[in-house]
Fold these 4 entries.
Entry 1:
Amino acid sequence: MANAARIKLEDIENPTERGKYVVCIIGCGRLGLLHACLFAEAGFNVICVDSNQAVTDALSKGKVSHLKSMVEPIIRKHLQEGKLRVLNDLKAAVSQSEILVIAAPVDINEKGEVNYSSLGRVLKHVGLGIRKGTLVVVVNTLTLGAMEKVVKEILESVSGFKADLDFFLAYSPVIFPENQTLETLANYKRVVAASGELSLKAASTILKTIGKAEIIETNDLKAAEALALFETAKDFIIAAFAKEFALLCEQMGVDYFTVQSLARMREENQPLNPSHIYQDGCAVLDFLLNEAESLNLKLKVSTAAVEANSETLKHAVRLVKGALKSCGKTLRRAKISIIGVSQTPNASDIPKSFVKKLMESLEAKGANINIYDPYLSGKMLADLKPFNVKKGLAEALEGADCIIISAGHEQFRRLDLSKLKLMVKMPAAIVDLEGLIEPKKAEVEGFKYRGFGRGAH
């Protein structure tokens, strides 16, 4: 078999050359499946392996729970061509592969405490099957020092090999994997870290074949680990700022989404992404706060961000309650139609955790919830039990007191409000969490409009 550490980019410029190598994807969650698709499309042979029998059984039939319309056609094509296989035996999968991509998640609880036991079990099986010359790339986010103290230590101990001599080890984390799609991952600007030059060159060479963006190389593993943690925390802090700014816009009569559009037009500025408003808790930030506390440090900005983000759900409930009140109705016994639950616009994906929490909160206050999403899949339906899921938009909106728009699907942007008002129970409210509907248009049709960050109502 070919030696992955000797691969050079010029040797694998075409799919025929890449077909000499087997890439084993360890962990078939969202991040693992996206990597599997990209490697298969690039011409590599791919083995997918996961400890969850239900996941591998479904995958072997070409069925996935994430981004179905995007991922399933690619998986099925390569299954049929024999370029992609699915196994349950991790040791066997590892022994057949030159390149191992570890996408098994790390468990971090709500207190920021890290549990490496499940990843440790994966690494022990990898150590039992690994061959000399194998390249191992870890793509999930780890805590500081984990590449040396957990990954390297376990692999060396179990295999009897030495990293950078007998096998090759690198770290290339993808932050917020739950938000990645095939397009974003292919365009993701990766940092690749390895203590040895051969490991660094091999990993960078392989990852260049599935990406379009520049790759940043470093020999400082701890710096790469810290960067992934800090970038995750930074995005969470930006989310807190976005939420507070949106609230301020509401009170000042300013449209937050218009501000966001203007920010996008200024090339030197990153847009104030409206999706930041609904970002959930951040386990990585909880970990950093824990670490700081153990060192007698107070991360004031990060602590404030956690507090600000925790208020989002409460404010969304207040918006619904206020919108209903303006219609002369109460939240209790109100019929609320939530349209759009997929976390990825215009794609079948898992439900947004924020929306699930919002539904639970509204139902606990006595509201009757109907749900509709044109991209609902079987897995999404299972995740939404016991809520009342409707198959069509008209069925979901019939007799509704309030419509909550909670996914940025393009068809929701084109809703005909003059027809909608014939379906709902007027006066009715629209609570637009995605900024898709123009407030004035909604009000002209007789709706009471509310939106997070929408001051123009």
Entry 2:
Amino acid sequence: MQGGLSAKLLILTIFFVLLAEILIYIPSISNYRLTQLQDHLSAARTAALVLDAAPEGLVPRALELQILQQVGARAIILKRGNARRLLAFSDMPPTVSTTFDLRDASRIKSVFDAFATLFGTGPQIIGLIGDAPREGEFVEIVMSDEELRASMWRFSLNILLLSLVISIFTAALVYLSLLALFVKPMREISAKIMAFREAPEEPSAIMAPSDRQDEIGLAERELRRMQRQIQTALVQKTHLAALGLAVSKISHDLRNILASAQLFSDRLSSVSEPTVQRLMPRVIGSINRAIALCQSTLAYGRAAEPAPNPRHVRFKMLIDDVGAALGLGEGYPAWINEVDDKATVFADPEQLYRAFLNLGRNAVEALRAQPPRNGGAIRIAMRASETSVIISMADNGPGIPAKVRDKLFQPFAASGNKGSGLGLAIVAELIRGHGGTITLQPSPVGTLFEIELPAQTTGRA
């Protein structure tokens, strides 16, 4: 793959190996130069012993030139006390351009001197000073740096070739190791991710993690867990889509049936019998709510809950209507409305009615499924402050299992007792639309929900 991870790793490996070789080369070339110069001085000290011991003028000129050639110098000088003695020299003592004292040469200066010699222009005559034999103060030689420079370039070329060989060999080993340990597993993970993207609903698309215990193995296991969660979410969403389509069809037909029932109820409202006159307003109200709910259900697949149309609502009366719709009153379980007669909330009455109808239905089902010994009861209360209204609904039923509390307001998370699992999700959406919150509060017995609404809400939060 062009520009892939493996190519980048190979380039970086070669680069860092070459960088390491350069860092090794810098002190190496300096030490090589010092070694070469020390060899010249060592040969000069030996020659100085011979030349200094011989009587002056008795050393043949040919032997003197041969000694200079062996030392690689043009002149050998010995300093003893205040006297400097020229022990040997070529035809004419050359002019020295630079003198290096190797007795106290620092490492940093030696590095700069080495590169100055290596990249110098043309042959130069240099002087070298080192320790003298016997009681002499120092020995000095005068030489050309031409041969030294050529030798240093040969050494550098050998180092370069060796560095290239080591770099290629090391880079190949590192590259193959990284390819096997990291790049190949990452390619496999990438391929499995792309396969999952093409068919996320297929169980075979979920990757099978390896037995590795390192970060790659951890990534594989976490990816598998994430793929399972995504697949589960897709199944739920597909189920929701199918359910929504079915509910829309049912709601469409139910709306037509309810429209007919509304016509009949309108005719019954004209009957003068007292019981009919007392019950028909609630019947008509229930039918109207059912028709409105069917219309909202038909629009559910196209949008979320419609924005609330808030107004001041007599809350005690609304709770009484909820209790009547649930068939409660003097029967079981007890429906205890503790809301003050004059208490109002600023909310959409239809949406608020639906929210408490869902909460009440859940409580009734729980109490009838597991009746408490002292009798079941559902209690609704309300308290207000300057900024909010807090409404509580409590029952003394079996309570909500701990395993579903974290996902209580998600679709299908809290289904039970023949419920669809959508009731609390709908309640949470309706309350959020008013800018409020619904929470499950700790309670020693049964279930306690608290709904907090702003003191005055003008729309969806």
Entry 3:
Amino acid sequence: MVVKGKEGSEEKQSVSPYHLVNIRLFILFRVLFNARFYYPVFTILFLDYGLTLEQFAVLNTVWAFTIVLSEVPSGALADLLGRRFLLVVTAWLMIFEMAVIAFVPAANPDLVFWAFLINRVLSGLAEAMASGADEALAYDTLVVHGLAGQWPRVLEVQMRAQNFGYIIAMTLGAVVYDPSVVNRVLQWCSVNVSVSQQMSMRYPLYLTLILAVFALFVTLRMRDPSPPAGHRTRDPQKATIWQLLRLVLRTGAWIIRTPMAFTIIFFAMTIDHTLRMGVTLTSKYYRLIGLPEASFGLLGSLVAVVGLFVPRLARIMVERLSFGLNVFLLGAGSVIALLFLSLFVPYWGILPVIAIFVGLMLTSYFTSHYLNELTDSQQRATVLSFKGLALNVAYGIIGLAFAALMQHYRVVQTGLHPSQAVDFIEDQAFVATVGCFPWYLAGALILTSLCCLPRVWRRRSTGRKQ
């Protein structure tokens, strides 16, 4: 299967896409928006502010539901009101979400909880609004200039730049969070100031807030590209709720009626949510394969370094191999990685973790390339938002399934080892649950293939143009 674009075959290959201001700003926005300095200390940041693990779980559930509820409407708004408008709003939301927890007094636990609740809602809205809008703006910019075929190269540079930002954020964020490190640096600089944990825990937030301000300046410089010839333009002042609903329904119907679009989203959903669940559990997994906690930040940076080379591999694959072969290689490789992950090999178990991160990056790259190539400009952001919705709903479902399996295996392991400590039972339940991952993904891929591929083959056999 090969996806053929609808944007025309003539490309102005002599013009570099990086000469276009929107493309440079798109890459810079992705770096600024995703380089969160608090990521390496995400969980303990909540706890050091005085929140409990239960509150942490509730707050992140709120974040996930906010994304799910606003994903598709925000994509439709981007198509109706303009992608730049949504990205400017996204940058403002990022500023507010960081400011509300960066400056909240930590002495009042109730106030801290409400501040973090507001942060999670604003963060979810920002994630949903950025999802699809920035990509649609960048891709349509290429289409207008006859450079749609350069999208794989733009994706390659964007993902590599984002990984550079991730490396810096992971390293610097963990360093400034540790008051002992900050104090040693201050002493070396002959600054007679002592920093406490209550002070240093805000430093990653301040740094991310600075990036949010820069992200706002970047979005203000963006411009919505002029629509291709023959495309109707919409007046943002006349956009109504009915237009929003009609665009959402029309786009959803188009995805269902278009076998290739449906197949791309379903395969992405199947692979992404399983691998993402594995990534979520890396801290616990590292402990069980004997890696010290001090190495976790370094391992995150190692994964980011490997990620610098993945976009080039992904571009070569989409340029030289068919869609079907790429999906087969990605699916088979993901199942094999999860099989090795489930073995919990001491120390060397880091290798399947790296393979899982590579699989996630390939999934993101393939989905962006094939779906943008297939989608019309007027509904591009909405289609990408449907994709984001599918991925997040599936991730939420597998999270619930993981919790249910853990509870089941706790009961089983308690019956098998009634005299063992609670920690031992918990570890054995975790090992047994992770052992289900490869078989789950293999079964899900088979079902997805049976559901999607016959429709694609029937459509191809009729000779109708996708």
Entry 4:
Amino acid sequence: MTAVLERGLKPSWSWLGVDIYRIFHLAAVFGLTCVLLKVIQLYHQRQKLIKAFSRFPGHPTHWLYGHVHELLEGEVLNKVEQWSQKYPYAFPLWFGSFSAFLNITHPDYAKALFARGDPKDNVSYRHLVPWIGKGLLVLHGPKWYQHRKLLTPGFHYDVLKPYVLLTAESTKVMLDKWEQLIAQEKSVELFEHVSLMTLDSIMKCAFSYESNCQTDRENSYIRAVFDLSYLVHHRLRIFPYHNDLIYWLSPHGFQFKKACQPAHRHTDKVIRERKESLKDEREREKVQKKRHLDFLDILLHAKDENGAGLSDEDLRAEVNTFMFEGHDTTASGVSWLLYCMALYPEHQQKCREEIKEILGDRTTIQWDDLGKMTYSTMCIKESLRLYPPVPGVSRQLSKSITFHDGRTLPEGSLVAVSIYLIHRNPSMWKDPLVFDPWRFSPENVSDRHSHAFLPFSAGSR
């Protein structure tokens, strides 16, 4: 009877000769072995990082979170600025227990790093790839040089000169909108308006595209850029989100994919419509007569040494990169300049008087006027010093590096250059928090460290 019951309780697949309990046992052993191996790997990784950064003292870390929990509590830039005063030149920043950057805050260290050709890091930049693709911002090595060489003619002075009037037109649209808003006697968030103006400008100048984005009530591309910028920054600060599987299964990962869709639709539409317009013989003749092509036409007509053009993937990546980087960082720089001008009306008045004198009876800035705007240029540079549009860049060392003080970092280490902190380094700038445009007068610039002012970084970008 007992034997009959035992046979009845056996799983239905036992006739195949499979012992389900043995399978569970083996699976458990395999799983525990994998976990153990991962723990050992992470332990060795942490020990390697501790050894690499042993000569760089820094702020105390939490055993699990590193510095992340402190950075999440308040203003990140203010906090690291406090740490930079205690640990000059460079200090480690830990994102959890198994990932860390050396954060450079002194021009001597920045100069040593930028003199090399190290690739961008494989942590922060890779999070941008699903959005902008592998364009100039993300590429490195031979492909970066190939694309850079290809695009350089698009920034020739003769190409840039007519852009001044096009940008002036876009700015006038923005100012007309502001005049209407002023009548409502309410405060206005300028950054979105400035972003639309810079997007409108770059669409006209670099892509020969009339977007009318400033007069559209709701611009889905600008909204997508805001959302994607926030989500990339958020992902960097949440260590588990550095894992692709965890991130793409999370609510924020779904948000990111959703926000990419309008951004990609916008880019694809611009490329598609330009390709269509170039099918017209008159438009092709107009392009052929140009001494210098604009950015998108360079991409569409580009050929390598074998006569092959850019792939659709490369084309889309470069357009995505230039459209985002070209309008967003400019919008940030212009917005902070307006903030500084509002905060320091005495400097604003000097700029106004200078520009009025240059313009005379005219109402629009021309190319030749730009070189005469001495004081305004000094104010722009001082604003970029205090509020750089890109506060930092990062690299992964392709070989070990030795800094001027003898401290070294091994190959593979992640290094971040904090442009924000270099611009506020008290050993380079007297009263660094004071807005003083005269820092950029010719006599003051001549004695300054070559890497003390890096609003657009240095080296390969």
